[in-house]
Amino acid sequence: MGASPTPARRIPQLVLLAVALLVVAITWLQGTLGPGDLLDQLARRSIPLNQALSNGKPSLVEFYADWCEACRSMAPAMADLEKQHPEINLVMLNVDNPTWQPELQRWQVNGIPHLQLFDSKGESVGRSVGLRLNAELLSLAAALSEGRSLPDLAGVGAVSSLDDESKIGRENSINSAAAGPRSHA
What we know:
By secondary structure, the chain is of the alpha+beta class.
């Protein structure tokens, strides 16, 4: 007795199907259009680090992680920087990729987002640690582009010229603290 459902029973089934499809569509759109995806797009568009440091253009290198909320929320501002300052290399290095471990140690990355800033000669001129607003990123980019000193922003510092003995002492104290980019909350 396979009687077909009456029109009154069919309507709730169609509504339930429509709601399920809507939930799937919204979930898919959030996953593909959210800031996390933008972070991935920036990483895919970034040029290799060695090329960036040798092509005669200033560079901004972001150490990030996909799971880092500050990195994800900063992605739209980074995309804006990329559009407004094409004369600056934007390089994205994921701290979860073991390939970048030497760079993490070299530039003492112990929190993310960490921006390492380079002049047109590939020389490190400073760093920025922590979330940056769009205006702050554009200010950093303008300083790099024009070869000026970095703006006076909290968490931004120029690279100091320590002698080898001072560097060794500092590296040992940092290593003994077991600080690392994955240690932030």
